[in-house]
Amino acid sequence: FHVTGVQTCALPICAGLALSGLALLSILGASLLERPWLLTALVIYALVMAIAYFVQRPAIRSVLGLEALPEEVAAARARRARYVSYGMGALIGTIGILMSGKPELW
Fold first, then answer.
1. pLDDT tens column, 57-93
2. What is the Cα Rg of the chain in Å?
3. Where does 2-102 have alpha helices with state H?
C-alpha cells in the first residue's frame, strides 16, 4: 500500500473542492445569508474537512502501521479513528438532509 501516491492524488482533488467552494461563495456573495441551510451546510463541510485533515489523516498512519507503536496504543487509536469517522459520517448525512430539504433555519 503506497500512502504517498494516495496523498499525491488527493491533493488536487481537495484543491479543486476548495476552489469550487470559493467560487460558490464569490458568486452568491451576500445572498448566501438568504440561504441559511446552505450556509450551515458549508460550515459543516468545512468542519468535516478540518477533522479529516487534522485528526483523521494523522490517525491513519498508526492504523496502517506506518508508526511503530505498542499494539494496545495502535488498537486504541484505531478505535478512536473509527468513532471519529462515525461522527464525520453523521455530519455528512446532515449536509445531505440540508441540501435536499432546504429547511428554513432562521
1. 878 877 777 777 788 888 888 899 999 999 999 999 9
2. 17
3. 3-28, 36-51, 57-63, 71-101
